[in-house]
Every structure is written in structure tokens, then in C-alpha cells.
Amino acid sequence: MPAPLREREARVALLLSLVGLADHAAQRPGELSGGQQQRVALARALANRPALLLADEPTGQLDAETGLEVMELLRAVVRSEGVTALVAAHDNTLLTLADRVLELDDGVVREAG
């Protein structure tokens, strides 16, 4: 059963605030930048309070600076929400933000390094 409307609205307001988009709540997706759209996607992914967040190349369509900002935000938000995030990425500069890094090489998963 869905949460009551007031609770859902409060959750949306909280998440938009967490991702820095509280002032953009009335905008349509086409009116947002790529980085803002990624932030909305993060807020939507967290809306139902998941225990695990899977993100496949969440910064793949962003420039390096915006991608780093989105990943820093992802890290901060999942920590504040108590969520585990599993992020697949090819950008090695993002590895510094990870608590743990695994590599997939020819079907074998192992610790990086």
C-alpha cells in the first residue's frame, strides 16, 4: 500500500533538497541540465528507501566535473540515507570516492589493485 500523500510529498521535498534541486521541483526534465537530470534520477532511486542502490555508469553522459559532483553527491546521500550503493563505472577518477573497489576481468571478480 502506498504511503499517504503528505508523507510522499514530504519525502520528495527532502530528497530534492538533498540533491540540491528543491528550487527546481516544478521544472520538466527537458528544462534541466544533464547533471540536474542525474540528480533527479538519484532522488527517484531513493524515494522508496531501498537498502541497495544499483547504478550503472551514472556519470557516463556527463562532463568530468559534473560527473564528479554527481558521484560526490551520491556518496553523501547514500550515507545520509543508510543505503549501500553498487556503482559500475569505467572512469578511474571516480574510484577515489569508493569505499571498496572491485574489478571484473574475464568474468572474474576481484579486489582492485
Automatic annotation (TrEMBL):
Origin superkingdom: Bacteria
Q: Which InterPro entries match?
A: ABC_transporter-like_ATP-bd, ABC_transpr_LolD-like, P-loop_NTPase
Q: Where are the transmembrane segments?
A: none
Q: Where is the ABC transporter domain?
A: 8-59
Cited Pfam families: ABC_tran
Query: What is the protein's given name?
Result: ABC transporter domain-containing protein
Organism lineage reads as: Bacteria, Bacillati, Actinomycetota, Actinomycetes, Kitasatosporales
